Every structure is written in structure tokens, then in C-alpha cells.
Amino acid sequence: MQAHQADPAKRKRLRWRSRRGLLENDLIMTRFLDRHEESLSDADVSALTQLLDLPDNDLMDLILARTKLAQELDTPDVRHVVALLQAA
User: Fold this and answer.
1) How far lies 48's CA from each of 4, 7, 51, 64, in Å?
2) Distance (Å, whole) CA 14 – CA 23
3) In this structure, is residue 69 part of a structural domain?
4) Is 9 within the bounds of a domain?
5) CA dist., res. 15 & res. 9, Å (int)
6) Do residues 54 and 62 lie in contact, with contact meaning Cβ atoms separated by under 8 Å?
7) Which pairs count as long-range contacts for 26-31, CB under 8 Å and 24+ apart, including other chains?
8) Structural domain count, the chain
9) Where are the alpha helices (DSSP H) in the chain?
10) How far apart, in Å, are the Cα atoms of 79 and each of 1, 8, 12, 54?
11) Phi/psi at 19 (nearest 5 deg)?
């Protein structure tokens, strides 16, 4: 199985999946991927995928640091990606 970053189709799907219904999230995700897409590790991609499973408002609250990660998401990889998103 090919790593995420080595597979252009997987990268394209991630970018498509990152499109959000909430404009603010969409802008943040686009800016994030423009800056970090090529340097994301497979662990980062996995963490980002977990975050993309969240509803838009919950994701926005995490990015704006209004809420903390739920216990099941509170892992070093997810915390790292949240920090990158917050810096975007």
C-alpha cells in the first residue's frame, strides 16, 4: 500500500474532503493544505482525517481554541495537527 504523500489520488481526495460547509473552516483548511500538504506525514494525515469527521462547528471551536479535544481524539498526532491548523 502506497503512503499517502506518494499517492497523488490520495492527496487529491484529502483536499476534496477538507472542503467544508462553513466558509471559515473552508478557508482555514485551504490555507493549511497550501502550506503543509507536502510535508504532512501519514500520521498527520490520519489525525487530520479524524478531525475532518467532526461537524463543522466542532472543528471551528477546536481551531479557535474555544473547546478542547475530546478524550478519544486527544493524541499527540491530533494535537500536532490542531496546532498547525491554529497557526494557519
Assistant:
1) 12, 17, 5, 16
2) 17
3) yes
4) no
5) 10
6) yes
7) 28/63, 28/85, 28/88, 29/85, 31/88
8) 1
9) 8-17, 23-36, 42-52, 56-63, 76-87
10) 26, 26, 24, 15
11) -65, 130
Residue 6 lies in a domain: no
Name the grid cell of 48. 487530520
- pLDDT tens for the chain, residues 1 to 88: 456 666 778 888 888 888 887 888 888 999 999 999 888 898 999 999 999 999 999 999 999 999 999 999 999 999 999 999 999 7
Considering the domain boundaries, does residue 78 fall inside one?
A: yes
pTM here is 0.85
* Sequence-separated (6 or more) residues with CB below 8 Å from residue 14: 4, 33, 37, 45, 48, 49
Alpha-carbon distance values, 38 to 4, 16, 30, 86, 87 (Å): 10, 15, 13, 18, 17
